[in-house]
Specification:
The chain is α+β, with helices and mostly antiparallel strands. The chain contains 16 helices and 30 strands. Helices cover 26% and strands 31% of the residues.
Length: 638
């Protein structure tokens, strides 16, 4: 198809602003999915997405649309120049990429924006502009995309259309008439939105530059496609999701990854409708997929360029590597499952390139992997996928961040050889004792908080409790404020988001980015069960909150841990001493219940024998901690 009839766009918004519902209506109107197959959140293919009502993975889909009436020219555009060459019932290819809205999945959004020319900025008419709206908007602007502002949920009785319109006008500095109104639930305004996409989003343009001889090769002999995502199939191997920028690709061609240098044959090419649909070929401007047949991990990578083996072209600009901000160690509950866990992580990495992992070992937990995530929700989603998709039973350590620890001079060279007096600590269990530490540095974040003005007092107190530095405050729209804040990443992870939602009655929202490293006043908190340290429960806490954190953790573990056959102690240790303790009573059995009458000494002998057995069990017994206890200790509020 001619490039002028192709439009590539995405939908970006804050979480729960109606992206998936709007995409459903688009698929209905364009008849991409038969009515009998239609369901809610049709692009959210993962069970976890549908269960939680959020988008986790970006999802591309190709729609064919013929406007019933030719679109009208936009404001200020010459009607004659717009009308030239326009015909009734022209068919357009609309390539949509639905993106996640949660801040933890912003890397997914950044990759999707590289593969499109325009973006729908969706704002909930009942909630207004939110913090993540600003973050995704900045990404789209930096990519030079055409922004189409749209208000959703206009059918809601709580909709504040005019107020939110003013917020969007202030944000984009646009004409109020450019803002479109839609309802994903009823379908109102969606057809008009499709017409406006055709009108406002520019068609794709080839990026190919003249070669060294000054000649541009014919389209048949060239290919340049940007890999923006991929997945793994047991039968087909790696399937790469591509945006074709130059040339054409068909089945059976010899291709090569520009960065990795891996050669392969295209076993199948096709588009998304939204399931994978094979086609004869893909050409410039298309969004689709290529089945590579490669079954080894680490070959394909997001941001790589695919070209033809016989006529390789320079690689396209790729993506910045994601920076993990939360770390947790993952161990198989059964040591025999280590190889299976390694294989599962490799396959999962193919469908989510934003998390990282490397092998590590622990004296008490055995061999496992230290994994890096983009946030707490990202960690929760990945570990849940490992359980559901690969049937693995896991032990997950308490999430932590990266600390830079400067050690005191002396005997530390024996403990931390080759460290040059400094060590990076990813796992709390390996955090040095206070006596060996000179200074600790930790990452801070720049935070943007948006909230109605009436909740500012509560939020200020919350920020103070989380060691935040408050910067400038700006008012915008109707009675809403934007706060610029700096805070330790450690405190952001300490349930800050949930507490913000609580004190702002659900109206507060945040977005953040990593800032500088600063000195930290922290220590390691260990939990001891039956006098043995459990590495999975160790965490790094503020010295000011060490006693409070120890009390909370010990109390929580005491409530979660099943009773054992013997009495045991659960203790919290920090700052070189035990600062919290609970005793968990052992199970009791009346060993004399079967006896009737007789000499009392018979009963006394049995009780004495039981007492000796309990004492021996306490000395030698091992406490078996169920897997669900590790998970519940990780999640706040459990």
């Amino acid at each position: 198809m001619d490039l002028k009839h192709i439009r590539n766009f995405s939908i970006i918004a804050h979480i729960d602003h109606g992206k998936s519902t709007l995409a459903d209506r688009m698929l209905e109107i364009t008849h991409t999915i038969p009515e009998r197959k239609m369901r809610d959140q049709v692009l959210d293919s993962m069970e976890l997405e549908r269960e939680r009502g959020i988008t986790i993975k970006m999802q591309p889909v190709r729609m064919e649309y013929s406007p019933k009436v030719s679109p009208k020219p936009s404001l200020g555009e010459d009607p004659l120049s717009w009308a030239s060459g326009k015909k009734e019932n022209e068919t357009y290819i609309l390539n949509l990429i639905d993106t996640p809205g949660h801040i933890d999945f912003s890397y997914e959004v950044s990759r999707a924006l590289k593969a499109v020319e325009g973006s729908i900025l969706l704002v909930d008419a009942t909630q207004g502009v939110q913090a993540q709206t600003l973050t995704t908007l900045n990404m789209a602007r930096e990519g030079g995309l055409k922004i189409i502002p749209v208000l959703s949920k206009i059918d809601s009785p709580l909709a504040r259309v005019e107020e939110v319109k003013k917020e969007v006008v202030d944000l984009l500095n646009c004409n109020p008439d450019e803002i479109l109104l839609v309802s994903g639930r009823t379908g109102e305004g969606v057809e008009n939105l499709l017409n406006e996409i055709i009108k406002r989003v520019p068609p794709p343009t080839p990026t190919l530059l003249p070669l060294t001889k000054g000649e541009v090769p014919k389209a048949e002999g060239v290919l340049r496609a940007l890999v923006f995502d991929f997945k793994y199939s047991n039968h087909k191997g790696v399937i790469v999701f591509i945006r074709l920028l130059d040339g054409k690709v068909k089945r059976g061609e010899n291709l090569i990854f520009s960065v990795s240098g891996e050669k392969f044959n295209s076993l199948e090419v096709g588009t998304f409708s939204p399931e994978e649909t094979p086609r004869d070929f893909l050409s410039a401007g298309d969004t689709g997929y290529i089945v590579t047949g490669i079954k080894r991990p680490g070959i394909a990578s997001v941001g790589d360029t695919i070209t033809k083996e016989k006529n390789p072209l320079p690689a396209l600009a790729g993506y910045m590597q994601p920076m993990p901000v939360v770390w947790a160690s993952v161990f198989p509950e059964d040591a025999d499952d280590f190889i299976e866990l390694k294989s599962a992580l490799g396959k999962l990495k193919l469908s989510d390139s934003s998390f990282s992992y490397e092998e590590e070992s622990s004296g008490s937990l055995g061999r496992g992997f230290r994994c890096g995530f983009l946030g707490m929700l990202h960690l929760e989603i990945i570990t849940e996928r490992l359980r559901r998709e690969f049937n693995l039973k896991l032990v997950i350590t308490t999430p932590s961040i990266t600390y830079e620890v400067i050690l005191k001079r002396g005997n530390n060279e024996k403990i931390y050889p080759h460290t040059k007096n400094s060590v990076r600590v990813y796992s709390p269990y390996f955090f040095p004792d206070d006596g060996n530490i000179e200074t600790v540095l930790e990452p801070w974040v720049k935070l943007k908080v948006i909230t109605p003005v009436k909740y500012l007092g509560n939020i200020m107190q919350l920020l103070f409790d989380h060691e935040a530095e408050i910067g400038e405050t700006n008012n915008f729209g109707n009675n809403r404020s934007s706060l610029s804040v700096k805070m330790p990443l450690r405190e952001l992870m300490r349930n800050f988001f949930d507490e913000l939602k609580s004190v702002s009655s659900g109206y507060g929202s945040i977005s953040y980015e990593i800032d500088e490293m600063r000195e930290a006043n922290v220590t390691r908190l260990d939990l001891l069960v039956a006098d043995e340290v459990v590495p999975a429960f160790s965490k790094v806490v503020s010295k000011k909150r060490a006693e409070e954190e120890a009390e909370e953790a010990v109390e929580k573990l005491a409530n979660l841990l099943p009773r054992q056959m013997f009495t045991l102690k659960i203790q919290g240790r920090a700052l070189g001493r035990i600062i919290s303790s609970r005793t968990l009573s052992g199970m009791k059995k009346d060993v004399t219940q079967h006896m009737y009458g007789g000499d009392i000494t018979r009963k006394m002998k049995l009780r004495e024998k039981q007492k000796k057995g309990k004492k021996k069990m306490k000395e030698r017994g091992k406490v078996n901690i169920p897997q669900n206890v590790f998970l519940k200790m990780m999640i706040k509020g459990e």
